[in-house]
Amino acid sequence: MKNSFGLQGGVQLGCRRNGDGVPYLSSQRFSPPVHLSKPYFDEETHSLLINLSCPTAGLLAGDRMVCDIEVSDQASMVVTTPGATRSHFMRSGIARVEQRLAVRDGSFLEFNPGALILQKATNLEQTTEVDVDEDAEILFVEKILPGRIAHGESFVFQKFSNRLRIKRDKQLALLESFVLEPDNESVMPWKHSFPTPYYGCFYALSPKLADLLPCRERIHEMSSPKLLAGASSIHRRAGWVVKVLAGDPYSYKRAMKEIRKLLHADMGRAPTDFRRY
Are 127 and 92 in contact (CB under 8 A)? Predict the structure, then answer.
């Protein structure tokens, strides 16, 4: 049954550099449930920090959110959110999130939103298209929680579908797709690792990472009885994927923070401090 009351909104951002080499928003458009706060220029990292917020409760049946971002002209931009995104209870219907990220002309984009929380009975479909020029860089981060874990809620959502396509210099470098349905065996690898897992993934594409990820061994050494971490290369020497699965929030947050710092260092960058915003 289709829900005709869903919100159809999102955000479109374009980032370039001005005559002084400072990044700025060359185009911007947003509509509910997304709100765009005032951009902040971080002088230390020379990046434009963008904070996307959602004043509504989160995603509901019938909602469709589109995020379209393009960075060009050797600009540097970091996009984050002030908190998690909740996908709520749905009696019927589905919510959809569409993300399109393009990085051109030697530019850099870090797309690092808060965690996606799959609450009870939710049904969410997410698709992400990433298109990166040969001389450009991106650090794309995903965080997924299978419920309101603090409330004892885990793997009681209906269905979560996640599809990611990454192109490097117009050629397909990575196609990743998975569907989680607690009523079948699709969630068993997560459940067997930890009853209440915290999932995180980094996709780092950069010419500097074509042959080697210097921090790879340090990432593998993070694995413990409470956390699994590993890194693997992306096709066409495009970059690396780093995945984390943790059994508690403390190990998870510590590992995600450390890996972000390590990846920035391997890309020859300093991470922008979100708390400055």
Answer: no
